[in-house]
Amino acid sequence: MPTRPAALAFVFVVVALDMLAFGVVIPVLPLLVLDFSGGDPQNAAWWQGVFGTSFAVIQFFFAPVLGALSDRFGRRPVILLSALGLSLDYALIALAPNLWWLLAGRVIAGFCSASISVPSAYIADVTAPEQRAQAFGMLGAAFGFGFVAGPFIGGQAGAIDPRLPFWIAGALTLAAFVWGLFVLPESLAPDKRAAFSWRKANPVGSALMIRRYPAAWPLIGIAVLSYLAHDSLPHTFFLYANARFGWDQEMVSWALVAVGVVSVVVQAGAIGWLVRKLGERRALYFGGGAGLTAFTLYATAWAEWVVFVAILCGGFWSLWSAAFQSFLSRTVSASEQGQLQGALASVRAACQVLTPALFNGAFALGVSIDTRYAGAPMLVSALLLIAAIPFALRGTRGGAQPASA
Questions:
Q1: Percentage of the chain surpassing pLDDT 70?
Q2: pLDDT tens digit string along 215-230?
Q3: What is the pLDDT of residues 310-339, one digit of tens each?
Q4: What does the pLDDT look like over 177-189, one tens digit per residue?
Q5: How many other C-beta atoms are found inside a 10 Å radius of the C-beta of residue 185?
Q6: CATH 1.20.1250.20 region(s) of the chain?
Q7: CATH code for the domain defined by 212-394
Q8: Is residue 193 within 8 Å of residue 76, measured between CB atoms?
Q9: How far apart are CA 265 and CA 106, in angstroms?
Q10: Do 82 and 15 meet the contact criterion of CB atoms below 8 Å apart?
C-alpha cells in the first residue's frame, strides 16, 4: 500500500487544531474552577479531581465505541463529528454559570474526544507499513505543537477575559471541522469496513479482539507500561521542581515549553531519519533507552542543568512510542484498526485513573524522607520502562507481521 502524503497532511492539520484548542484551555480551566469554588483551593482541588476522573472514565468506556464506529462508517465522519462536538462543548463551557455546567462540559468532551484513536487508525489506513513509525511521529509532533502554543495563547487570552480562551478553543475546533469537511478524504475503503457491534465496542470487547492476535499482546504490555510511566511528569513536575530546586511557576513554564519544543523538533524532524538509519526495531530500543535515561536523570538530578539534559533525552523517547505503534498496527486487519486504536485510548484512560495516586504517593513518600528524593515519581517511571523491556523483546521478534493483507 503506497503512502498518501496529501491525506496525511490533512489529518495532521485537523489534529494540530484540535490539540491547539485543548492546550488553550489548560491554563485557565483551573482558575475558572477556583472562581466557581468561591476561592477555596481545597474545594477547587476536589472538583479538579472530579473533572479529571470523569473525563478519564468516559474515555475508557467510549473510546472503543468511536474506534468501532470508524471501522464501520469510515474515519472521516467520526473525526469531523468529534471536532464539531468539541467546538459546541467549548461554547458550553464558555457560557457555564456554575461547576455543574463545567462538569457537563468535561463529560461531553470525553464522549467527543476522537483526537487520539481515530487519527491513529487513519494513519494506519493511508501509510505503508515501513512508513508508519515516521507518520506516528508526525502525529505526535501535531500533539506537541498544540501543547506548546496552546497554553501560551490561553494564558494571554485569559488575562483579558477568563472565558475568552474557551471561545478561541471553540473557534479552532470549528475551523478543524470546516477544514476537514472540505479537504479531508476518507481513508477506509468500503470493502475493508467491519459491521458495528456493541459486543465489540467496549473495553471488554476490545480486549477480546486483541486476544485473537497473540502478536499484539506484548505490544499492548508496552503501551500500558509506557502510558503509566509518562504520567509522572504532568502530575508531579511542578511539585518536583519546586521542592528540589525552588523553581517558581514561571521557571516551570519555561521548562515545559522546552519539553514541547524538543518533542516537536524530534517527532517532526528526526524520527523519520532515525527509523531509516536504524530500522524500526533498533529505533524502538534507542527510544526506550532515551526515555530510561531521561527519567533516571530527573530522579537523580544533582543540578538544575541536569533537568534540561533530561528534557533533551526525553524528546527522543517519542521514538519508542512511534515504533511500537507501528509494530502494533501490523498485528490486526485493516477493518479492525479503529477498534485497536480505541482499545489503546481506553488503556490510556484507565492509566490516567491510576496514575495520580501512584505518582503523587511516590512524591509524598520521597519528600517525607528528604527533598533530595523529590524525583521518586520519575524513578517509578524508570522502573516501569525497565519492566517494558521483556515485552519489547518479545513484541518485535519477527517484525510483527500483519494479521491480514
A1: 83
A2: 777 888 888 888 888 8
A3: 999 988 888 887 777 777 777 776 666 666
A4: 888 888 888 888 8
A5: 15
A6: 1-180, 212-394
A7: 1.20.1250.20
A8: no
A9: 31
A10: no
Superfamily for 1-180?
MFS general substrate transporter like domains (1.20.1250.20)
CB 233 within 8 A of CB 240: no
Q: Which of 211, 203, 237 is nearest to 348 (CA)?
A: 203
Q: Which of 276, 230, 385, 396 is nearest to 328 (CA)?
A: 396
User: At residue 14, what is the residue type?
Assistant: V
Cα dist. 345→17, 70, 108, 203 in Å?
19, 14, 16, 10
